[in-house]
């Protein structure tokens, strides 16, 4: 029982010491950061303004896509498909234009 008590006290002391050391390190770090911020605000370097000869590059617009009528469904959006299993014609949406009837040419 005595050994357990000593071990518990040792653990508590170690934890208390580490907390104290961490707090001291944090306060030192805070002081260093404050000093660096003060030095940084005082030593602002003057940046030369850009000359008036600056010419931005012209951005060319992308060519627009030409939308044409779908050649598979001829602009209807639906196609007739022969269903061999049941033996009749079936209407489905066009796979090429997804039922819109129009596709992009480029």
Describe the structure using short key phrases:
two-stranded antiparallel ribbon, alpha+beta, 106 residues
Topology at a glance:
Layout: H1 2-42, E1 67-69, E2 78-83, E3 88-93, E4 102-104
Antiparallel strand pairs: 1-4, 2-3
Describe the structure.
The chain has one helix at residues 2-42, and strands at 67-69, 78-83, 88-93, 102-104. It has 106 residues and is of the alpha+beta class. Strands 1-4 form a two-stranded antiparallel ribbon. A two-stranded antiparallel ribbon has the order 2-3. A hairpin with a 4-residue loop joins strand 2 and strand 3. The longest helix is centred in the first third of the chain and has 41 residues, at 2-42. The model has no long low-confidence stretch (mean pLDDT 75).
Rough outline: elongated
Give the number of helices. Answer: 1
Task: Output mean pLDDT.
Answer: 75
Low-confidence stretches: none
């Amino acid at each position: 029982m005595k050994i357990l008590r000593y071990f518990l006290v040792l653990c508590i002391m170690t934890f208390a010491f580490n907390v104290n050391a961490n707090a001291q390190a944090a306060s030192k770090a805070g002081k260093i950061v404050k000093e660096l911020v003060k030095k940084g605000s005082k030593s602002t370097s003057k940046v030369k303004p850009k000359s008036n000869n600056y010419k931005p590059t012209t951005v060319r617009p992308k060519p627009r896509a030409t939308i044409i009528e779908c050649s598979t469904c001829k602009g209807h959006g639906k196609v007739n498909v022969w269903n061999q299993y049941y033996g009749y014609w079936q209407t489905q949406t066009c796979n090429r234009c997804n039922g819109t009837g129009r596709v992009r040419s480029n």
